[in-house]
């Protein structure tokens, strides 16, 4: 399943618009049956995945004719097609939609990683580099990239803020954030990279580009291949069950007191006993 020795890079960018990933500017609310969140709101591409798409497009602009293709892939219900079109309008060449039935439970990281492994295995030209967001903002698992690298036995570089590729040596230099600052990794291709928000904070060059109207119109003509979990021979049935989801307790308003004695009286009313020093 390793790519051929061709010098041109084939980049795969997994993106997410799952039913639980609502627009990050929307207030999250629990639904009435307390089994999840209210989904009757605006949805958008996972912001970490937007950065992954931007990084892939920027990489091609730097390497010019050294990148053969940028392909985006998403696993989700029919509405996920909108997210694929957005990525194509940002500059990706083609897309793959592993379509799930409407209302199907969202797959878990291991299932997604296995599906991506199957997609890579079906790519005739091979895949040299996978660039994906470090996590999704709905479940915050942050596991899929690492699991995919493990399943493929590929090198991995997580929390990346900068990616440089030497196509002649088939190597990549990845700058990533660690507790003590920044770390630079040198990895051999094929490689799985997960992107962080640090690049967006430091420089506007990693800010995801706006999908202009002309590019949106062009994206409608770009190829999107539809696959199914059955075709890929992967089982996306969740292994975990959500029993109940509740909102945090609403914060009570505060009050001012005029003296220490009044404060102690209020604490006693609330059932809190002051501790003697």
Automatic annotation (TrEMBL):
Gene3D superfamilies: HUPs. It is found in: Mitochondrion matrix. It comes from Rhodofomes roseus. Residues 33-236 form the Electron transfer flavoprotein alpha/beta-subunit N-terminal domain. Belongs to the ETF beta-subunit/FixA family. Binds 1 AMP per subunit. Binds 1 FAD per dimer. Keywords: Electron transport, Mitochondrion, Transport. The keyword Mitochondrion applies. This is Probable electron transfer flavoprotein subunit beta. The keyword Transport applies. Its cofactor is AMP; FAD. The electron transfer flavoprotein serves as a specific electron acceptor for several dehydrogenases, including five acyl-CoA dehydrogenases, glutaryl-CoA and sarcosine dehydrogenase. It transfers the electrons to the main mitochondrial respiratory chain via ETF-ubiquinone oxidoreductase (ETF dehydrogenase). Pfam families: ETF. Heterodimer of an alpha and a beta subunit.
């Amino acid at each position: 399943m390793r790519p051929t020795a061709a010098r041109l890079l084939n980049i795969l960018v997994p993106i997410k618009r799952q039913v639980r990933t609502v627009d990050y500017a929307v207030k999250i609310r629990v639904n009435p049956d307390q089994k999840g969140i209210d989904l009757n709101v605006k949805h958008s591409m996972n912001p970490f995945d937007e950065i992954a798409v931007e990084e892939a497009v920027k990489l091609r602009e730097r390497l010019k004719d050294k990148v053969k293709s940028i392909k985006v892939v998403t696993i989700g219900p029919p509405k996920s097609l909108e997210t694929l079109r957005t990525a194509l309008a940002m500059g990706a060449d083609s897309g793959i939609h592993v379509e799930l039935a409407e209302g199907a439970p969202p797959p878990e990281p291991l299932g997604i990683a296995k599906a991506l492994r199957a997609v890579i295995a079906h790519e005739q030209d091979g895949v040299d580099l996978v660039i994906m967001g470090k996590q999704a903002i709905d479940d915050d698992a942050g596991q899929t990239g690492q699991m995919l690298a493990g399943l493929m036995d590929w090198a991995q570089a997580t929390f990346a803020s900068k990616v440089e590729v030497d196509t002649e040596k088939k190597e990549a230099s990845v700058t990533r954030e660690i507790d003590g600052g920044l770390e630079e990794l040198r990895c051999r291709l094929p490689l799985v990279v997960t992107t962080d928000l640090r690049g967006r904070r430091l420089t506007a060059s990693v800010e995801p580009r706006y999908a202009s109207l002309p590019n949106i119109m062009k994206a409608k003509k770009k190829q999107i291949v539809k696959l199914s979990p059955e075709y890929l021979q992967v089982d996306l049935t969740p292994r975990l069950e959500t029993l109940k989801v509740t909102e945090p307790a609403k914060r009570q308003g505060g009050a001012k007191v005029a003296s220490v004695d009044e404060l102690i009286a209020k604490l006693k009313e609330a059932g809190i006993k002051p501790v003697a020093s």
